[in-house]
Amino acid sequence: MKYFTKEWYELSEFLGTAEMFEPIIDKEYSDKEFEYLYEDLRDKFIQEMRDEYENEPEFGIRLPFDEEEAGASFDEDYQDNLEDPDEDVPEWIRESVDPRFIALWVLPEKTYIKLMAEEKAKEERFDELDAAADDALDAMYDEAPEDMETLLDDFDDLDGDSVTDLRMTDGDLELVLAGWDDNGEDVNHVILFEDAVILEDEHLSIQTEVDEDGDLLSNCDLLYHEVYFEGDEIEVHMLFDNDTLKYLTLRCSYMTITEERQ
Fold this sequence. Notes:
Blueprint: H1 6-14, E1 22-24, H2 31-54, H3 67-83, H4 91-96, H5 99-103, E2 106-108, H6 109-143, H7 149-158, E3 162-169, E4 172-180, E5 186-194, E6 197-201, E7 208-210, E8 216-218, E9 221-230, E10 233-242, E11 244-252, E12 254-261
Parallel strand pairs: 1-2
Antiparallel strand pairs: 3-4, 4-5, 5-12, 6-11, 7-8, 9-10, 10-11
Helix pairs in contact: 1-6, 2-3
């Protein structure tokens, strides 16, 4: 990838991290003080849920706000966060801050200020990379042959879809993604890269399973792609989330996108 790189993606995922937290007084908290903090945040959450409920449009008979249910939701979220911390929270915070605070989405003030400064620096870097990516995307469409414009639009629609297979057949590479058609029906979208030559391969390891609801799950998603036209050849760069971020770059003579019923 030239523009939608791993760095660009990781920066985009980091933005907004500070907004998830609130600062608290920077000091040592006794267990009793933590209990007070917990109850205060719980009460604030319940009040926010109450305000949101009371400001919703009323349709027909409406039950009163369930304060007990809102409190139970707060307790459950806290326990979930404590047992399975959000991996988007920077590692230096997870290593230095009491996990009970992180589970409540609060940070000691000095840590919060440091996080804000880090996010500002990352946002400046992201804006720089993102502006270059936007220019490259415009150039990609400007340079595309007329008969490829619709295909590029269709390719854009596949970003974010789950990858279920990657196979090489007689020199052609097929990338299969699970998605939906215009009617909302489950389909596979198959991208065929004819006469494919792999330029960069970080070795996707695709694992799929069907969950209890019958939905197909995959450990691999197509995040972003770039397409370049060089003479009679097409160069395709793709970024995947496959447990880690991975690149796949190839050159081909032509490409098509078709639908198959799952």
